[in-house]
Design goal:
Distance between the termini: 93 Å
CATH topology of the largest domain: Receptor-associated Protein
Oligomer: single chain
Strand content: under 5%
Helix content: over 70%
Number of domains: 2
Shape: elongated
CATH architecture of the largest domain: Up-down Bundle
Structural class: mainly alpha
Order of helices and strands: HHHHHHHHHHHHHHH
Amino acid sequence: MRSLKAAGRKFLRRRDFLMENLSLLMASGMGISHALDAIAGEAKAKGSREAVDFLIEEIEAGSPFWRALEKLEIFPDHTISLLRIGEQSGRLANNLKVVSLQQEKERVFRSQLRSAMLYPVIVFGMALVIGIGISWFVLPRLAKVFNQLNIDLPAITRFTLGFGAFFAAHGIVIVPLLFIFCITVYFLLFEHPKTKAAGQALLFVIPGVKGLIRDLELSRFGYLLGTLLDAGVNIDQALISVEQSTELYSYKRLYRHLGAQIDEGLSFQKAFSLYPKSTHYLPGSVQRMIVAGEQSGNLATSLLKLSASYEAKTEAATKNLTVILEPLMLVVVWLAVLGVALSVILPIYGLIGGFDASGG
């Protein structure tokens, strides 16, 4: 069992490759066993071959494909549910295509978010490196010059030079500690499972980022829930799958609430009204669209249309985010440069003024 889980973990990054190729091979009329044999022949990594070989052995032993995948523990529950329904209904090839499209959308969503955040991260990182370089190497030399002039320095100059002197004396310790601190904060806010909720809450207050994250989540929510319902998954089970698939804790709580209320027999409209500030996560227009789809019996279709609409909004929001954050980052860099410039210019200006007065 341990070796099986290890092979599954190694195959985790290649699971998109498995679904995509299985979908193409089975759509051409190939059986599941022959399709897996073809994929095993192309698998180069040892973990990938072990995982595919395990699937082949399980299927040849009479196990359903979805059950064999479940034992690997590399696919979420909603994927297993889709494949189970597809295999039982004779639509495995169709549902494999749906799973492949889902994974492609997930990759696109993550790529859009990373690309939107790349520019501010690069600007902030460069500003931090340049600021450390100036503080560590340039300001101490300026301090020596001003000390030799023996003049009264403005408060901003004393503060800047004092900061530089502190870096000159302790920079060899401060810089590594600062680097470790940044890595630790990033890990706690965005990676550690017990504290990443705080990092997500922080992202929801950054201008432009909040709207992008919400649009991404709504597009993913509409597509996943709509696809599950269209495939025949029960609404309560589909909401559980949606809850398990999202990484945003605020939306996890919302989906958990909706699933619990609907499991008790309530409608979406009533469930929305019982959740505090539900419009903060699902806008009123989205809620009305879901309620109308539920009442008309076309909820899956309404959700898929919702996904398509917010997918288009996401593309626009990704482009606009850079436009919004660029001036903010430039203002931060400009303020830092202005502070250093004033610290240098004001004493020189005072010194020139003193020479003029002595000449008079």
